[in-house]
Design brief:
Layout (H helix, E strand, L loop, with lengths): L6 H7 L5 H12 L5 E8 L5 E13 L5 E10 L1 H24 L4 E3 L6 E3 L1 H7 L9 H6 L3 H17 L11
Antiparallel strand pairs: 1-2, 2-3, 4-5
């Protein structure tokens, strides 16, 4: 079943909470805005709502300048929105687990040198939030007696491209 090519058909399928902001976009296009981009929920023929990204522009105007035809696209964002929500939930659960266990986590991209420390890692390691996350600062957060051995093991693991199982003490 196809949707009629008319604004009223689109409005009928639009989620009620999205109607007013969408109508404001439509009015702006009618008043002469060249292009538009907006997100909204649109009811599918099976009754569920899809998250839509709509982009378009006025295609034809009457002699008085009034927009009489708009062309655009609708991109279904539903799967992406679901994946984003699942990722946020997973990240929150990990953060809660790390906090509860008084543990921290870090990520080190060896190719770019980028290091990311979780807030809980900084807390456990006693690293201030304003200290840049990098290898040198990590090494300096270890007990002085552990630094040389830790550095050597890290470099050897990188050189030989092998897994690293490292124990060290933090200040």
């Amino acid at each position: 079943e196809e949707i009629e090519h008319h604004l009223s058909s689109w409005l009928r399928l639009l989620h009620p909470d999205d109607r007013e902001p969408c109508l404001q976009h439509v009015d702006a296009v009618k008043q002469g805005e060249r292009e538009y981009e907006m997100e909204f929920r649109l009811r599918h023929k099976d009754g569920r709502y899809l998250a839509i990204l709509s982009r378009g522009l006025p295609l034809k105007r009457a002699s008085d300048g009034k927009v009489v035809r708009i062309v655009g696209t609708h991109l279904d964002l539903t799967a992406r929105k679901r994946a984003d929500a699942a990722l946020r939930l997973s990240e929150e659960r990990l953060r809660l687990a790390l906090d509860a266990a008084r543990m921290g986590a870090f990520h080190w991209n060896i190719t770019t040198g980028e290091v990311v420390w979780t807030g809980s890692y900084r807390q456990v390691a006693g690293i201030s939030s304003d200290m840049p996350a990098n290898y040198a600062n990590w090494l300096n957060s270890l007990f002085p007696e552990d630094r040389e051995s830790a550095d050597q093991q890290v470099r050897e693991a990188m050189e030989k491209r092998k897994d690293l199982d490292l124990e060290y003490r933090i200040l």
